[in-house]
């Protein structure tokens, strides 16, 4: 009986053992099959990737420097070959899986729908130097489907400290071509439209044609910058502008905000000032730095005496208002500005939530300034009722922020500020003003603290003392200088 029980136990054990062996065999076979499939897919992916890499236009190693420091010209056949290879990639001779793998991190971050919007977007970058080249590089690497590059300038040796992709071989060649050539090595399926042209208001429509999703202003020339911003703003074309990265070194001071909020930036101030003359004061996002100048910091280098002797300084530039002096630039700062621009565009297009630090809303301050100025005008006219002056909050902001840079012309203080007439009204009998004649312009007023304005009204506007006699020659000279500046900017109205 014991023997029978033992055999039965062995039989059950062998049966379970055999089933276990079959299960293990099945598992092992499945694992081998899966490994084979994965290996095949990996080999296939490697093959596709190699094919894609082989199709990418090679860099132009034949572009050596000439004896005088410029790049040797590329042959027409080289350019055509690169263009054909890139065009083939854009027509569909590429693998969608490879593209999605390249953009995998963006997809996880922005989401599938967000990445789709980015890939279907069209961005025009005007200005392809230190800032614009970084914008273009990161937008292409992030999946933007179509990019138009607009710049009339060439790569110089001094460009290489801040340009995203230019090399010695690119010196002397158009910036847009150097940029396109390098970017095609990264993502040949992206459509890159390189325009070696200067953007100008008179033919701006052609260079901005195609319903762009976004336009980037990375221009140095002040008038062209203003024209481009005004053109896009008045036509509801989304645009973001990069302000001055020159003479800046503190990356923690770089901000993104409305152009009305930008401070401590001469380029932004000049741009904003001219735009306000054209009736545009808000609604344009800008990248700027709040870093203040100071002892030991870089500043715009003066022109040498020899350059002044050559003739009018404004005739030395390539374009009107174009820089004719060397602008100190730490190469890292334009890249930070460009990355901020690209980041803003990507998150905006994808609908990704952002929350930038906001500047103070000064509209109430400007409103109070106009009300106080109207009160002063009424008192100077014997408390005439219903005084309405021909200035508004926008004018107040222009005078306060642009002309007097947000500081009292007397003390330099920047709190409790008001606008006041600078010179007394002419006598009534000279006929300059009557009961209904309340003419006052932005050039008639200055910015002071409330206490200073009270003293000024009492001693200058009512008693008739000269402003110079009350405040001294330095203050009077400053006011005269600011009036001359205003006279210059008034031509842009």
Automatic annotation (TrEMBL):
Keywords: ATP-binding, Ligase, Membrane, Mitochondrion, Mitochondrion outer membrane, Nucleotide-binding, Transmembrane, Transmembrane helix. It is a multi-pass membrane protein. The keyword Ligase applies. Coiled coil: none annotated. One of its GO terms (cellular component) is mitochondrial outer membrane. It comes from the Eukaryota. CDD domains: YgdL_like. The keyword Phosphoprotein does not apply. Gene3D superfamilies: NAD(P)-binding Rossmann-like Domain. InterPro entries: ThiF/MoeB/HesA, ThiF_NAD_FAD-bd, Ubiquitin-activating_enz. One of its GO terms (biological process) is cyclic threonylcarbamoyladenosine biosynthetic process. Catalyzes the ATP-dependent dehydration of threonylcarbamoyladenosine at position 37 (t(6)A37) to form cyclic t(6)A37 (ct(6)A37) in tRNAs that read codons beginning with adenine. This is THIF-type NAD/FAD binding fold domain-containing protein. It comes from Tuber borchii (White truffle).
């Amino acid at each position: 009986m014991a023997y029978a029980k033992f055999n039965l136990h062995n039989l059950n054990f062998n049966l379970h053992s055999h089933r276990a062996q079959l299960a293990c065999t099945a598992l092992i076979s499945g694992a081998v099959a899966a490994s084979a499939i994965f290996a095949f897919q990996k080999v296939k992916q490697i093959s596709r990737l190699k094919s894609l890499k082989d199709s990418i236009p090679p860099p132009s190693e034949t572009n050596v420097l000439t004896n005088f420091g410029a790049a040797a010209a590329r042959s027409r056949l080289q350019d055509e070959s690169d263009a054909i290879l890139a065009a083939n990639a854009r027509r569909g001779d590429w693998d969608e899986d490879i593209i999605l793998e390249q953009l995998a991190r963006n997809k996880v971050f922005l989401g599938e729908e967000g990445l789709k919007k980015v890939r279907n977007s069209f961005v025009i970058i005007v200005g392809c130097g230190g800032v614009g080249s970084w914008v273009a590089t990161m937008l292409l690497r992030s999946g933007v489907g179509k990019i138009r590059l607009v710049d009339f300038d060439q790569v110089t040796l001094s460009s290489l400290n801040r340009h995203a992709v230019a090399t010695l071989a690119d010196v002397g060649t158009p910036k847009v071509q150097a940029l396109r050539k390098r970017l095609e090595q990264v993502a040949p399926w992206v459509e890159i439209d390189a325009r070696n042209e200067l953007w100008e208001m008179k033919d701006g429509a052609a260079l901005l044609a195609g319903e762009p999703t976004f336009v980037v202003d990375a221009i140095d020339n002040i008038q062209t910058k203003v024209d481009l911003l005004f053109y896009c703003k008045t036509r509801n074309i989304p645009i973001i502008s990069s302000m001055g990265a020159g003479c800046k070194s503190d990356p923690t001071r770089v901000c993104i905000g409305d152009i009305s909020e930008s401070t401590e930036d001469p380029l932004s101030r000049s741009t904003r000032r001219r735009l306000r003359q054209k009736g545009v004061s808000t609604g344009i996002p800008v990248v700027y730095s709040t870093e203040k100048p100071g002892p030991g910091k870089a500043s715009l280098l003066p022109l040498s005496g020899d350059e002044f002797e050559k003739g009018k300084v404004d005739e030395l530039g390539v374009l009107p208002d174009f820089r004719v002096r060397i602008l100190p630039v730490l190469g890292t700062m334009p890249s930070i500005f460009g990355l901020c621009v690209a980041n803003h565009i990507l998150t905006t297009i994808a609908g990704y939530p952002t929350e930038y630090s906001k500047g103070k809303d000064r509209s109430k301050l400007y409103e109070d300034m106009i009300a106080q100025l109207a009160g002063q005008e009424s008192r100077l006219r014997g408390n005439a009722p219903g005084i309405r002056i021909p200035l508004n909050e926008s004018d107040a902001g222009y005078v306060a922020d642009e002309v007097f840079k947000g500081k009292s012309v007397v003390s330099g203080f920047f709190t409790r500020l008001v606008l006041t007439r600078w010179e007394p009204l002419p006598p009534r009998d000279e006929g300059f003003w009557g009961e209904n004649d309340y003419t006052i312009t932005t050039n008639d007023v200055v910015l002071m603290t409330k206490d200073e304005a009270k003293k000024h009204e009492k001693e200058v506007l009512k008693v008739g003392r000269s402003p110079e006699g009350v405040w001294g020659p330095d203050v009077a000279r400053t006011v005269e200088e600011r009036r001359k500046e205003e006279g210059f900017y008034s031509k842009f109205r």
